[in-house]
């Protein structure tokens, strides 16, 4: 979890990245095939972890509500990351702190909006709507036409997974899911920036503290002393590990070596993983259209991986 990329590792970032951020020098030689697939594996592992954590969180909501679940998740994740990473608050510029604060607020908003959507609509449609944020980011940040093709294919799968439309869903839940998607796209950008400005996973740990401090009052207001129940604490800790500590750390490390556009397209796998988690944990069966949608998003993600591996080297954008 504290692995750090080599100093010569190429970095690709969205065009909106601050010009004050340090930029790595691209390597002259093409990276090896295994090296290109490494960050992809990190992203996939993080996606599986966060969706099964989300399914577990649904079972916890009757105990403490959506805001209580988020407060527990962020608080436990912050404590765990502080113990593991032991980040130093010294030696960082004002720009570094601004980045980590915005990253933390973004995580708090993303989690809060998503769990509010889960309280109103099923897991599969919620993730399907949320993933539209990263898909939009992939199109906006990519300069290759082929990536737009993969994004379009994944988008078709996303809408198929939603049954061709979302009119039967609670409109408030849909709005929360779309808002979470916008925050997810922002999370991708600031996770990459934080990973470049702070060593190892130190920035993530500090940002998680910011997120926990921002959200804890909301959780206390909704759930009060229910948050102190031992069973609730145990389940909340499991959600925090599966949905925050593991996936955020893996994604932060992956974004140091993976272009933001490819990362965002890989996020289209999330509805498929969510549907699987919903089936195994929440007993939500898959229909034929949902299975077809999963095939589409997997095909799009595989295409994105092949495009990334075939690039030979990663361009660095200022």
Structure report:
- By secondary structure, this protein is mainly alpha-helical.
- The chain contains eleven helices and no strands.
- It has helices at about 35-85, 95-120, 125-130, 130-140, 145-160, 170-195, 200-225, 230-255, 260-265, 270-280, 290-310.
- The longest helix has about 55 residues, at about 35-85.
Total helix count?
11
Query: What is the gyration radius calculated from CA atoms?
Result: 19 Å
Shape: globular
Helix-strand string: HHHHHHHHHHH
* Strand proportion: under 5%
Measured distance between first and last alpha carbons: 27 Å
Features:
globular; disordered N terminus; mainly alpha; 318 residues
Topology of helices and strands:
Elements lengths: L32 H53 L8 H25 L4 H8 L1 H10 L3 H17 L9 H27 L4 H22 L6 H26 L4 H7 L3 H12 L6 H23 L8
Helix pairs in contact: 1-2, 1-7, 1-8, 1-10, 2-6, 2-7, 3-6, 3-10, 4-5, 4-6, 4-9, 5-11, 6-8
């Amino acid at each position: 979890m504290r692995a750090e990329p080599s100093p010569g590792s190429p970095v690709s970032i969205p065009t909106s990245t601050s010009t004050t951020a340090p930029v790595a020098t691209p390597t002259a030689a093409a990276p090896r095939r295994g090296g290109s697939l490494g960050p992809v594996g990190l992203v996939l592992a993080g996606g599986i972890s966060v969706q099964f954590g989300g399914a577990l969180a649904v079972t916890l909501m009757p105990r403490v509500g959506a805001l209580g679940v988020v407060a527990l998740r962020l608080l436990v994740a912050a404590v765990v990351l502080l113990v593991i990473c032991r980040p130093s608050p010294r030696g960082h510029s004002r720009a570094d702190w601004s980045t980590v604060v915005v990253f933390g607020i973004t995580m708090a908003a993303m989690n809060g909006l998503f769990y509010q959507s889960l309280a109103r609509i099923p897991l599969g449609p919620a993730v399907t709507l949320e993933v539209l944020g990263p898909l939009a980011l992939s199109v906006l940040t990519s300069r290759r036409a082929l990536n737009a093709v993969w994004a379009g294919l994944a988008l078709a799968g996303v809408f198929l997974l939603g049954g061709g439309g979302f009119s039967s869903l609670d409109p408030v839940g849909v709005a929360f899911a779309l808002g979470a998607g916008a925050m997810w796209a922002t999370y991708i950008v600031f996770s990459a920036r934080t990973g470049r400005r702070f060593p190892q996973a130190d920035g993530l740990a500090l940002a998680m503290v910011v997120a926990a401090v921002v959200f804890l009052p909301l959780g206390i207001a909704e759930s009060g002393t229910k948050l102190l129940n031992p069973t609730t604490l145990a389940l909340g800790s499991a959600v925090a590990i599966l949905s925050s500590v593991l996936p955020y750390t893996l994604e932060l490390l992956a974004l140091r070596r993976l272009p933001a556009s490819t990362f965002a397209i890989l996020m289209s796998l999330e509805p498929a993983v969510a549907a699987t988690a919903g089936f195994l944990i929440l007993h939500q069966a898959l229909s034929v259209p949902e299975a077809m949608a999963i095939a589409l998003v997997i095909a799009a993600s595989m295409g994105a991986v092949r495009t990334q591996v075939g690039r030979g080297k990663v361009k660095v954008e200022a």
